[in-house]
Automatic annotation (TrEMBL):
Sequence intervals crossing the membrane: none
Protein name: Fructose-2,6-bisphosphatase
GO molecular function term, any single one: phosphatase activity
The organism's place on the tree of life at top rank: Bacteria
Source organism of this protein record: Mycolicibacterium neoaurum (Mycobacterium neoaurum)
Xref: Pfam families: His_Phos_1
Listed CDD domains: HP_PGM_like
Amino acid sequence: MSEVVRLTLVSHGMTEAMAAGRFPADEPLDALGGRQVAELAATRTGVDAGMLCCAPELRAGQTAQALGGPATTEPALADLDCGRWRGKSLQDVDPAGLSIWLTDPTVAPHGGESIATLCDRVRSWLDGVAERGGRHTAVTHPAVIRAAILTALGAAQTSFWRIDIAPASRTTMHFRGAWTLRL
């Protein structure tokens, strides 16, 4: 029987853009986010020993640093590219484009990345983690964690928006021939 691969996905802490309902840019953690990750770091509950990596955005790096970084920057963990919508509120984007983006995972009306493309990117990264084996902690974004969950469950990409990932939360997955979600 092969070794179980353990992966803990940590969502970065709260940012001003999240609180204001704006599409993310490369913003830092806000004061609440700083407190959230400090609490997470103090308990380290559910943060696995082993390799620590993080998305390239500032908020993920700050979260990883609080967890005891340094962390290896992993481009595959980057947040969903929202193209022209980056930094804008939901009210500031084309309602028809937003509606189709929320219902069809293959489109990217903002000129960035579709949900389907994000899911493919995350699936490829998970395949690499499974091949390397061991224990991993990855600090990333809610969108990336949603894509990982869909992969583990073999769920339809149309379910993407039905998964809520809280700031500074942990999602644990194991791999032994297939990814499983551990709750």
